[in-house]
Prior knowledge:
Helices cover 27% and strands 0% of the residues.
Amino acid sequence: MGKGDSRTKRGKIYQGSFGKSRPKDPKRGKKVATKKASTRK
């Protein structure tokens, strides 16, 4: 496990790829409970 391992974050950084262990958008990587934005009039 390390630079050559495509399943680890370090391996993804080394290869320049994205996936489950290294999402492009950090906010979308983990499941976070989102609140609906209230509409203002």
